[in-house]
C-alpha cells in the first residue's frame, strides 16, 4: 500500500512472534498433550468405559427391538408429554416415512445417541446450574467457560477429543455433550435466580434448610425454565450428531456426511429431513410438557 | 404454652452495601434524608426500643415506607440488623447461629406476608401444610391441622385450588391459614388483613381475638387501619421514618397524641370504642347513683346500656365491685365527640 511505503516497517507489519518461536511452542504443547494422553490412556479408557457400555446398551435396545414396539413406545411418550393428538399423529406419519425410505435403523442409532447425550447433559448440567445459582463465584468462572464452549467452532474441540479418546462413538458423544450442555447449565442457573424473592423469603421464614428450599421452591419454580434448557439441549445434540459423525458416530448424520462427500443430493436431503422430523417431534413434545409445568406458576392476582 | 415477650433494644437498620460505616453518624443525628442524599443509603430503622407484651397483640402502625415491614422482618431475622438486639426469651435472635435460627423460625414463629408469598405450584392445602412439612410432622397429621384452619378462614371447598385461581383476599387467607397451622408462639402478621373486604376482615379479627383468648400467642400485627389497631392491640407503636414516634395502649395514644403526626393519625377514630368510663368519671361524692357499669367499659357500650335502661347517670364499679366514680350521659357523649390532647383546640375550631 502506498501509505505503508512512507511508514516504518513496525507499523505496517504486525510484530508477530517469529515462525521458529511459534513452531517450538506448538511442538512443546502438542507433544506434552500427546505424552499426557499416552501415559494416562488406560485411566481415561477406564473412566469412559461405563459411558461406552451405557451407549451400546441403549443403541442395541433401539436398533434390535422390533419396530412396532419402538413406534408404540414413542407414540405413548409423545402423547404423554404433549397431550396433543396432532403431535402424536405427526410423529406416526414422520416415523412411517423414515421407515419407508429405509432409514429406520439409522434413525434409531441417531435417537439412541441423542437420548444418551441428553441424559448426560442433563445429569451434568443441572447440578452445575444449581451451584452457579447458589454461588456467584461459580457463576463468574462457569459463564466465560460456557461462552468459549458455545462459540468455539465445534470442529476445533473435536481435535483434542479425538487425540484423547480416538475415533468412535464415545468421543463423538463427548463432543456432542460439550456442545449441548451449555443451555442446560445456563437455563438452570437462570431459572433458579429468577425465583420470586418473596416466595423464597416465605420459605426462609418457616425455617427451610438450604436443601428444603431447593427441593420445595427453587427447583419446582425453575422447572419450566429448566425444561426450556432440556429442549435446547436436545436440539443442539441433534444438530451436533452430524458433525460428530466425522469422528465415527453412525446414524443419519453419517449418511449426510457421506452424501456431502459424494454429492448425493437425494440421500442428503432425505436424511436431512429425517433429522428435521425427529427434531420437531422432540421439540413439540418437550415444549408442550414445559408449558404444562408452567400452568400454575403465573401470578394472576396480587 | 407460655409465650414470652419480645424485647427490641436500640435497633438500627441502614440499607445499602456499607450500612455499618454510617451507623455512628446516624446515631449522632444524621437524618434519613441526609443519609440518602449524602451517601445513597436508606435508613430503614433508627433507635427502635419496643417491649412487646408476652401473650398479647402488639400493633405497629405508620405511613407507607415508615419501616413497618422492615421492623417485623427483624423479629425472625429475615433482615439482618445493622446494630441492636432482638431478645426473645432472653436470647438475642440476631446472634443465633444458622441452626438455632432455623429451629427458632420452625418452632417459635409463623409469618403472614403483606404480598402473600404463596408457593404458586402448590394447592391451598399443600401451601397450608408448608410449615409443618418443614418441621417434619407426618403428612396425615399436618393435613388434618391444615384443613381445620382452612375451614376457619372460610376457604372450605378451595383446598385443591392453586393460588392463581383465587382472589387476592382469598390468597391472603391462605397465607393466614398457613401461619396459623404452624401453631407457633410468635405470630408475625404484616398487613395480614389489608386485602380483605370489610366483612371478612372483622371476621378474621374475631378469629385472632378468639385465638388470643385460648392460646395467648405473642402477636405482632401491622396495619394501616386505626380502628383495627384499637380493636386488636394491647399495645400500639407508631413509626415514622424508621423511628418510633409514640407507643402505648390505644387509649393513651388517642387521649394523649404525642405530636401533630399522631394527632392526624387518631383524628378519625371512633373514640367511643376506645375510651373507658373510668377515664372520664368524676370521683364519687356521696352515694352511688343510677345504674352500675364496670370499670373498663368503653363509652359506647356504657351509653348504650344507659339509654336502654333509661338512666342518665351511672356509677363505675372497680374490680372488686366497689363504686369508685360517677358518669353522666352528657359527659359520655361530650367525651365521644370532643377530640382531646395535642392540637385539640384547633380541631374543635375546624
Ligand atoms: N432491601 C431494601 N433496600 C433498600 N431500601 C429498603 C429495602 N427494604 C426497604 N427499604 C426502605 O426502607 C423503608 C421502609 O420500608 P418498609 O417496607 O419497611 O415500609 P413499610 O412501612 O412496610 O411500608 P408499606 O406500608 O408500604 O408496606 C423504605 O424507605 C424503603 O425504601
Ligand atoms: Mg410493608
From TrEMBL, chain A:
Compartment(s): Cell membrane
Keywords on record: Cell membrane, Membrane, Transmembrane, Transmembrane helix, Transport
Residue ranges of every copy of the ABC transmembrane type-1 domain listed in the record: 107-286
Signal peptide start-end: none
Listed transmembrane segments: 61-81, 87-104, 111-135, 155-181, 233-252, 264-282
Top-level taxon in the UniProt lineage: Bacteria
Membrane topology: Multi-pass membrane protein
InterPro entries according to UniProt: MetI-like, MetI-like_sf
Major place of residence: membrane
Family: Belongs to the binding-protein-dependent transport system permease family.
UniProt-recorded name of the protein: Proline/glycine betaine ABC transporter permease
Organism: Mycoplana rhizolycopersici
UniProtKB/TrEMBL annotation, chain B:
Enzyme Commission no: 7.6.2.9
ABC transporter domain: residues covered: 30-266
CDD domains assigned to the protein according to its UniProt record, in alphabetical order: ABC_Pro_Gly_Betaine (cd03294)
Main localization (coarse): membrane
Subcellular location: Cell inner membrane
Membrane topology field: Peripheral membrane protein
InterPro entries found in the cross-reference section: AAA+_ATPase (IPR003593), ABC_osmolyte_uptake_ATP-bind (IPR051921), ABC_transporter-like_ATP-bd (IPR003439), ABC_transporter-like_CS (IPR017871), CBS_dom_sf (IPR046342), Gly-betaine_transp_ATP-bd (IPR005892), P-loop_NTPase (IPR027417)
UniProt enzyme class: translocase
A molecular function (GO) term: ATP binding
Superkingdom assignment: Bacteria
Annotated keywords: ATP-binding, Cell inner membrane, Cell membrane, Membrane, Nucleotide-binding, Transport
Gene3D superfamilies linked: P-loop containing nucleotide triphosphate hydrolases (3.40.50.300)
Catalytic activity: a quaternary ammonium(out) + ATP + H2O = a quaternary ammonium(in) + ADP + phosphate + H(+)
Protein family (similarity comment): Belongs to the ABC transporter superfamily.
Complex formation: The complex is probably composed of two ATP-binding proteins, two transmembrane proteins and a solute-binding protein.
Protein name (record): Quaternary amine transport ATP-binding protein
